[in-house]
Write a structure and sequence with these properties.
The longest helix has 18 residues, at about 185-200. It is built from six helices and nine strands. Strands 3-1-2-4-5-6-7-8-9 form a nine-stranded mixed β-sheet. The chain is of the alpha/beta class and about 220 residues long. Strand 6, helix 3 (about 135-140) and strand 7 form a beta-alpha-beta unit. The protein has one domain (about 5-220): Aldolase class I (TIM Barrel, Alpha-Beta Barrel), CATH 3.20.20.70. Helices cover about 30% and strands about 25% of the residues. The protein has helices at about 60-65, 85-95, 135-140, 155-165, 185-200, 215-220; strands spanning about 5-15, 25-30, 55, 70-75, 100-105, 120, 145-150, 170-175, 205-210.
């Protein structure tokens, strides 16, 4: 296994979002993302490389999982699909008995992706546009889980694209400024988002309002 990717951190925690909420997992945070999202909540996952960014192979990840008694890996970022060797590493992990979830903004359309990987597409509201339509439609047909993040002001746009992508189910989380992440602010943001979803979405549209559970436990603390 010669393929390597740039990784800024690996740690054991519990998944706090969407249909993976509550699942214990080994997180692998790759380094590098060109999306330039305003007020990114993981700024250390992009920009100029520092000494903490390491070249990591699939075998390194397997060793980390064995050491920590893990059989599941969540690859996040940064943006995983901007890593040249990511598809080969995913295949290597699965072949060695490790199940894989990959979190992506969905702009990339990788070819020859192992169909056994669980893909979670998390577009930000400003990514939902005609330029990225084909990419998100590709992922909806692929069977990826969609996990939106936004505020009440974004609900009409999210519903529009929920229908364009012909989704049967999706998740939506409240988005707040990372600098204002407190339990009280997250609770208020959730209540406001829930009210907006109840108002704008029809009963037959399965959009599930979920919190970012891990932030209730650790706020924006790294490595947990």
């Amino acid at each position: 296994m010669n393929e390597q990717v740039d990784v800024v951190e690996m740690f054991i925690s519990v998944n706090g979002e969407g249909d993976e909420m509550g699942r214990r997992t080994a997180f692998v945070r790759v380094f590098g993302c060109t999306a330039n999202c305003p007020q990114c909540d993981t700024p250390y996952g992009k920009g100029d490389k520092t000494e903490e960014v390491k070249k990591i192979s699939g075998q390194d990840i397997i060793n980390f999982c064995h050491k920590n008694h893990m059989k599941h890996v969540t690859i996040t970022g940064g943006e995983p699909f901007e890593q040249v060797g990511i598809r080969e590493i995913i295949r290597f992990l699965i072949q060695h008995g490790v199940s894989v979830t990959i979190e992506t903004n969905g702009i990339q359309k990788p070819e020859a992706l192992d169909p056994r990987v669980h893909v979670v597409v998390s577009p930000k509201p400003w990514m939902l546009n005609d330029k990225n339509r084909d990419s998100y439609f590709y992922w909806s047909q692929w069977g990826a889980t969609f996990k939106f993040a936004g505020t009440p002001a974004d609900i009409e746009r999210i519903r529009k694209w929920y229908k364009i992508f012909r989704l049967n189910k999706a998740y939506i989380m409240p988005w707040i400024d990372p600098a204002k992440t407190t339990v009280a602010n997250m609770k208020n943001a959730y209540i406001e988002l829930l009210a907006a979803v109840n108002e704008k979405f029809d009963d037959g549209e399965d959009i599930r309002v979920v919190p970012q559970f891990h932030k209730y436990l650790w706020l924006n603390q790294r490595g947990v």
